[in-house]
């Protein structure tokens, strides 16, 4: 799969001297959902701002769908839609007018059918004649998404798109993201709701202190760095852990065995089964088995802590 965004040696240093991005290399595949994770101040919004032409880069290159964002700004920007964190639109315009105007900014002819479809997909159709100032916070967020989609972009950036919004909007938006991906749109998102990235993303990138510290396919990342903690409740106390290939920890009261497996899926399940089989062969009776898999959030926190 070819890259729709290619970032090479990207640097951004502000006038204050703060180096927000440090020699970033990143390729984003056409048609994927890519989640960019990182703590506050890591450089996520700056990176998005550079690619979208809102922040001037200090060094390096960014190619968006074949167009250099500096040398061929207009063509590159026409390929990109951005849903920013902050609401920035004319509060006294109607929903229909502001979304239609956003399309016109890219020199595209009016397309009422396309605008209607977007508004219906985002449950905004019955609000099309309302002024934006009269809308709820969730509805205003929907308008931002509609504006970003008005010019039919091939690349869509979602910068904390569900922060502070209701459950209904979150559900509608992720359904729409799935449809867009099916249509070939590449989606790059940042989110504090890591369970969303775990559910939606094809690949995960982690940025910290202006540096990309990891890029990995989601399932490969979970398999490589994920862990499962297994707790076995015993029917009778033991004085020492059973002698089996898997290292087991025995609680102080002798009533619980614990161990950790790395990975996910079938190999993980087989590992648990092997331990239980070995215990039964050694006549160790148990009354309960509990497993707790590490989430993407656990992996993310561990990665950031190790790099801090």
UniProtKB/TrEMBL annotation:
PROSITE patterns: ABC_TRANSPORTER_1, ABC_TRANSPORTER_2. Residues 5-234 form the ABC transporter domain. Keywords: ATP-binding, Nucleotide-binding, Transport. GO terms for molecular function: ATP binding; ATP hydrolysis activity. SMART domains: AAA. Pfam families: ABC_tran (PF00005). InterPro entries: AAA+_ATPase, ABC_transporter-like_ATP-bd, ABC_transporter-like_CS, ABC_transporter_ATP-binding, P-loop_NTPase. This is ABC transporter domain-containing protein.
């Amino acid at each position: 799969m070819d890259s729709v965004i290619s970032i090479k040696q990207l640097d951004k240093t502000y006038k204050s001297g703060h180096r927000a991005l440090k020699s970033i290399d990143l390729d984003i595949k056409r048609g994927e959902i890519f989640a960019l994770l990182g703590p506050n101040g890591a450089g996520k919004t700056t990176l998005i701002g550079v690619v979208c032409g809102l922040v001037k880069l200090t060094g390096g290159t960014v190619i968006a769908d074949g167009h250099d964002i500096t040398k061929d700004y207009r063509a590159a920007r026409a390929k990109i839609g951005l849903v920013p964190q902050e609401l920035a639109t004319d509060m006294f315009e109607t929903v229909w007018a502001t979304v239609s105007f956003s399309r016109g900014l890219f020199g595209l002819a009016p397309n009422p059918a396309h605008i209607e479809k977007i508004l219906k997909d985002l449950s905004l159709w019955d609000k099309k004649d309302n002024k934006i100032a009269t809308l709820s916070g969730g509805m205003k967020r929907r308008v931002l998404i509609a504006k970003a989609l008005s010019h039919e972009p091939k690349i869509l950036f979602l910068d904390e798109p569900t922060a502070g919004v209701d459950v209904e909007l979150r559900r509608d938006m992720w359904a729409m993201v799935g449809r867009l991906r099916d249509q070939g749109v590449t989606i790059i998102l940042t989110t504090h709701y890591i369970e969303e990235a775990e559910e939606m993303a094809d690949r995960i990138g982690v940025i910290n202190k202006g540096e990309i510290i990891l890029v990995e396919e989601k399932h490969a990342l979970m398999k490589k760095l994920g862990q499962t903690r297994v707790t076995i409740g015993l029917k009778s106390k033991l004085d020492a852990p059973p002698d089996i290939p898997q290292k087991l920890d025995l609680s102080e009261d002798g009533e619980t065995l614990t161990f950790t497996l790395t990975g996910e899926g079938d190999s993980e399940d087989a590992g648990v089964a092997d331990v239980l089989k070995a215990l039964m062969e050694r006549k160790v009776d148990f009354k309960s088995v509990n497993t707790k898999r590490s989430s993407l959030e656990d992996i993310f926190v561990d990665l950031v802590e190790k790099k801090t």
